[in-house]
């Protein structure tokens, strides 16, 4: 991929084009993309739960209760999300809002320890942290915004990945 030889890679070109097409489909059809994302997460949760359940036997410890609880929780959540997709919508919405709030709060907390002289970097990080907390609270009360942010982030990643793959293919 990064060698001295310049060679055309048709597989990389194909993957890049498919990634760009998928990004455009996600932006064009947000409702069906949301449900597809939820079904994919549900299936991956079920597979991960069964995988973790089967790996518990190999772990050498006397108390494996919490490992079984975690694997069972993944399986349960995946099945619930598969048969009731609105649970997945609520989960994505709530997890995005809470993660933005906690991440921004951590940024504000770390900012106090990172900058002792309160120079320009301190105030810049402080303002961004406060804006992040405000954005998280706005997302917490607007589930459509949270789902839009999630879908557009995935779409942006696929578009960027597709362009990189096309550039590297030639």
Give the radius of gyration: 21 Å
How is the main sheet built? none
Number of helices: 6
Low-confidence stretches: none
Averaged pLDDT, please? 89
Q: What percentage of amino acids are in beta strands?
A: under 5%
Shape, per Cα inertia axes: extended
The total domain count is 1
Distance, first to last CA: 11 Å
> What oligomeric state is this?
single chain
Order of helices and strands: HHHHHH
Number-wise, the strands total 0
Instruction: State the helicity in percent bands.
Output: over 70%
Please sum up the structure shown.
The chain has 170 residues and is an all-alpha fold. The chain has helices at 10-28, 30-55, 65-83, 85-114, 120-140, 143-169.
């Amino acid at each position: 991929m990064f060698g001295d030889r310049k060679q055309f890679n048709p597989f990389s070109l194909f993957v890049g084009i498919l990634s760009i097409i998928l990004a455009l489909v996600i932006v064009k059809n947000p409702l069906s993309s949301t449900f597809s994302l939820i079904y994919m997460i549900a299936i991956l949760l079920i597979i991960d739960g069964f995988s973790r359940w089967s790996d518990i036997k190999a772990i050498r410890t006397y108390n494996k209760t919490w490992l079984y609880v975690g694997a069972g929780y993944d399986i349960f959540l995946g099945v619930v999300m598969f048969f009731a997709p609105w649970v997945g919508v609520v989960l994505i919405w709530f997890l995005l809002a809470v993660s933005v709030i906690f991440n921004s709060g951590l940024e504000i907390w770390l900012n106090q320890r990172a900058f002792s002289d309160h120079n320009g970097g301190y105030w810049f990080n402080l303002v961004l942290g406060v804006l992040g907390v405000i954005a998280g609270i706005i997302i917490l009360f607007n589930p459509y915004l949270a789902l839009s942010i999630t879908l557009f982030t995935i779409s942006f990643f696929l578009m960027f990945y597709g362009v990189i793959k096309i550039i590297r293919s030639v």
